[in-house]
Amino acid sequence: MWFFARDPVRDFHVGSADPEGGPPGPWVLHRGRKKATGSPVSIFVYDVKPGAEEQTQVAKAAFKRLKTLRHPNILAYIDGLETDKCLHVVTEAVTPLGMYLKERAEAGGLKDLELSWGLHQIVKALSFLVNDCSLIHNNVCMAAVFVDRAGEWKLGGLDYMYSAQGNGGGPPRKGVPELEQYDPPELADGSGRAVREKWSADMWRLGCLIWEVFNGPLPRAAALRNPGKIPKSLVPHYCELVGANPKVRPNPARFLQNCRAPGGFMNNRFVETNLFLEEIQIKEPAEKQKFFQELSKSLDSFPEDFCRHKVLPQLLTAFEFGNAGAVVLTPLFKVGKFLNAEEYQQKIIPVVVKMFSSTDRAMRIRLLQQMEQFIQYLDEPTVNTQIFPHVVHGFLDTNPAIREQTVKSMLLLAPKLNEANLNVELMKHFARLQAKDEQGPIRCNTTVCLGKIGSYLSASTRHRVLTSAFSRATKDPFAPSRVAGVLGFAATHNLYSMNDCAHKILPVLCGLTVDPEKSVRDQAFKAIRSFLSKLESVSEDPTQLAEVEKDVHAASSPGMGGAAASWAGWAVTGVSSLTSKLIRAHPAAAPAETNVPQRPTPEGHWETQEEGTDTAEDSSVADRWDDEDWGSLEQEAESVLAQQEDWSTGGRASRAGQVSRVGHNLDPKSESDWGSWEAEGSWEQGWQEPSPPEPPPEGTRLASEYNWGGSEPSDKGDPFAAVSSRRETSPRPDSWGDDNWEGLETESRQGKAELARKKREERRREMEAKRAEKKAAKGPMKLGTRKLD
C-alpha cells in the first residue's frame, strides 16, 4: 500500500443518520497521507462482516462505480484494495459536507457565493450521471456530499446507484430507514404513479439537499413545504424540485440554466470565475488577459481556501505555460498574502525569481513596484545571485520609469546585498545616474535613496562616497535635487567626523544659503544649525567627541540612520509622483530641466506629497503601461537636448547630453572623457586634495560663470569637479539680493533661444542642400551606406 491511515474522523454504522453528514453506509472515513509525497488523502474503509452479504455487495458496487467514473464534480478515486476481509478506497482529501458546514458556521458561516457554487457543482455532477451516463444516483443527500480543501463540493455515496436503462435490474434495496425520508412521494405513497422522467427522483432529493444546506437536518418530508432560509432568488426553482408532480421536475441541465439566468441565485462573479477557470485551457489569449486583469478586484470577496488551492495553481500555470505575462502579478501577490512563509517559498518565490530574468518591460516595472510584498521572503543568496544581477539592468534602461523604479527598489534590496554588490556595483550605478541622467527627478531620487541606505554601507565606502555625492547634488540645476543633497547630509549626520563637518560639509551648506530657491535655503539653514550645534557641544565638552563619532568608523548597521529618516522621507513619494506625471504627460520635457534652473514651486508642493497619492499614481502608470509610446521617449529626449545649449561645458549634464547624442556630433575627446564612471567628479575623488585643475580651453564657460538666479556671476568652482578643489580664492559678492534675478535670467534665456533657433535653421538648410546634391549625383542610396555628417 502507498498510504497509511491515521486519525479516524467518524464511524458511521448501518442504520445511523448522522446529522453532521458522513459517508453513507457502513464505511469508516480516515485521514491519511501519501508516503512518497506526504500529500493528504482520505481513506474509506469497509469491514466485511458475516451475514451482511447484501451490504457487502452494495459496498463492492460503490467501489467499482467510484473507480470507473471520472468527473471534476465526483469524488476522485486515487487507489484501492479489495480483500476478503475489507475494502479500502483512497480518494482526494475531503471533509463530509455536514461537518464542513458546522465548522464554517462556528467561524461565521458560508456566504451565498460559496453555497451557490457548491450547489452548482452537485447539480452538474447529477447532469453528467443522468444525461451522459444514464445513471440514477439514488442517494442524493447531505451524507453523500464532500468538500475538498479548495471548498469544491464533490458528489460521493455511489452505493445505491443503478442504470436508468434497466440494465442489471432495478434500484438496490437501501435497508436504511433514515434514508427513506429523501425518497420522492411517488415511491412512498403506494399510489402506483409511475416516474415519468429518469431524473425525477434525484431532483426531488436535490431539493431535500438544498433545504438541509440552508436550514439544517431535515426532520421530516413535510418540512419541505416551508423554504425557511432558502434565498428568495432560489425559492422558485426549489419549489419546482419538490413539487408533487414528477413530470414538472426539471432536468439537471435546465435547472442550472434557470439558476444562471439574470438575477438568478447562481448568476454571480464567483460562479463565473470558477467556470472560466475550468475552461481556461481552451480560452483565447485575449480572454485570459482580460480575465486576469479583472480577477484582482474580485479576490477580496472570494473564500481564502478557494484562492489558495484553485486560483493560485491556475495563476502559476498561466505564467509557466500560458505566456500570461505581467498581468498575473497583481492577483498572484494578492493570493500570496493567504500563504504562510513555507508555502510562499515553495510556490511564489521560484516564479518571482524567474520573472526577474524576463525582458518584458511591463513585467519588470510591476515587479519593482510590488517588491514590498515579497521582499521579506527572499533570502540573501537568492537576492545577490538571482535577483540583483537582473535588477541592475534597469539602471541602464532607456525608459525613465524603469530607471526610477529600479532606484526606489534599492531601498528594499540594500539590506540583503553583499559587500561587492552594495559597496561596489550599486555605488557605480548611483554615481552614473547622479552624474549623467537627463531626468532631474531621477537624479533627485538617487540622492535620496543613497541617504536612506547610507547606514548599510561599509565605513570606507561611506567616507569615500557620501560627502562627495551629496555635495554634487547641491550643485544640481534641478532644485529638488539640491534639497535632496541637503537632506542627505542631515539624514546621515552621525556618519561624519567633526573635522569633516567643519571643513567639508558646512562650506557646501553655507553656499546654499544664497540659493535662488527658498525651499533650498530653508533646508540649508536647518542643516547648518544642526551641524553647528554638534560642533558647539563638542567644543564645550571635548570628552563628548568619542560619543558623537561612535558611528563614523562603525560597521554597517540598519539602525544608524533611523533617527534622521524623516529628513528624506518626502522624496521617494513627492518626486516620484512628479516623475510619473512627467513621463505620462510630457515625456520629452524632463531633459530640459538639466539645462535650465527651475522656477520656484509653491512651497510644500513636492515636499509634502502623501504616500497614498504616489501609490495611486504609480498604479495608474502601471495599468496604462501598454498604452504609452515608450519607443518615442528617447527620440524626443534627444530632440529636446539637441535644441538646448549646454549649461556647463565641463559639467556632467553637458556630457550626459553628449552621450545621449552619440552618432550625431560626438567628438573623440568627449567620448574618452566619459568612457569610465571613475571620470572627473566621481565619488572616489571625494574631498581629496587634487592637483591644480588645468585651465579650460579658450572660450569655454564653466558652470560657475552662468547666472543661475543670483545677481552676479558666482566665483564657485566647477560644481562637478572634485569638491576638494573648491577654495575661497576670491571674495563672494557683498550682496545677493539687490539685483533683479528674474530680469537677467529672462533676458539671457531669450538671447540663447534666439541664437539656438538661428543655428538650427542654418543647419537645416545646409543639410537639405547636401542631401539634394548627393541624391542628384549618386541616385538612390544603398542599404548600409549612410554616413553621419
Automatic annotation (TrEMBL):
<feature type="compositionally biased region" description="Basic and acidic residues">
    <location>
        <begin position="746"/>
        <end position="756"/>
    </location>
</feature>
<comment type="function">
    <text>Regulates COPI-mediated retrograde protein traffic at the interface between the Golgi apparatus and the endoplasmic reticulum. Involved in the maintenance of the Golgi apparatus morphology.</text>
</comment>
<dbReference type="GO" id="GO:0005793">
    <property type="term" value="C:endoplasmic reticulum-Golgi intermediate compartment"/>
</dbReference>
<dbReference type="InterPro" id="IPR011009">
    <property type="entry name" value="Kinase-like_dom_sf"/>
</dbReference>
<keyword id="KW-0677">Repeat</keyword>
<dbReference type="InterPro" id="IPR016024">
    <property type="entry name" value="ARM-type_fold"/>
</dbReference>
<feature type="compositionally biased region" description="Basic and acidic residues">
    <location>
        <begin position="763"/>
        <end position="776"/>
    </location>
</feature>
<keyword id="KW-0813">Transport</keyword>
<dbReference type="InterPro" id="IPR000719">
    <property type="entry name" value="Prot_kinase_dom"/>
</dbReference>
<keyword id="KW-0963">Cytoplasm</keyword>
<dbReference type="GO" id="GO:0005813">
    <property type="term" value="C:centrosome"/>
</dbReference>
<feature type="domain" description="Protein kinase">
    <location>
        <begin position="1"/>
        <end position="312"/>
    </location>
</feature>
<keyword id="KW-0931">ER-Golgi transport</keyword>
<dbReference type="GO" id="GO:0030126">
    <property type="term" value="C:COPI vesicle coat"/>
</dbReference>
<dbReference type="InterPro" id="IPR051177">
    <property type="entry name" value="CIK-Related_Protein"/>
</dbReference>
<protein>
    <recommendedName>
        <fullName>N-terminal kinase-like protein</fullName>
    </recommendedName>
</protein>
<dbReference type="GO" id="GO:0004672">
    <property type="term" value="F:protein kinase activity"/>
</dbReference>
<feature type="region of interest" description="Disordered">
    <location>
        <begin position="640"/>
        <end position="789"/>
    </location>
</feature>
<keyword id="KW-0206">Cytoskeleton</keyword>
<dbReference type="GO" id="GO:0005524">
    <property type="term" value="F:ATP binding"/>
</dbReference>
<keyword id="KW-0597">Phosphoprotein</keyword>
<dbReference type="InterPro" id="IPR011989">
    <property type="entry name" value="ARM-like"/>
</dbReference>
<comment type="similarity">
    <text>Belongs to the protein kinase superfamily.</text>
</comment>
<keyword id="KW-0175">Coiled coil</keyword>
<keyword id="KW-0333">Golgi apparatus</keyword>
<dbReference type="GO" id="GO:0016192">
    <property type="term" value="P:vesicle-mediated transport"/>
</dbReference>
<dbReference type="Pfam" id="PF00069">
    <property type="entry name" value="Pkinase"/>
</dbReference>
<feature type="region of interest" description="Disordered">
    <location>
        <begin position="586"/>
        <end position="622"/>
    </location>
</feature>
<feature type="compositionally biased region" description="Acidic residues">
    <location>
        <begin position="736"/>
        <end position="745"/>
    </location>
</feature>
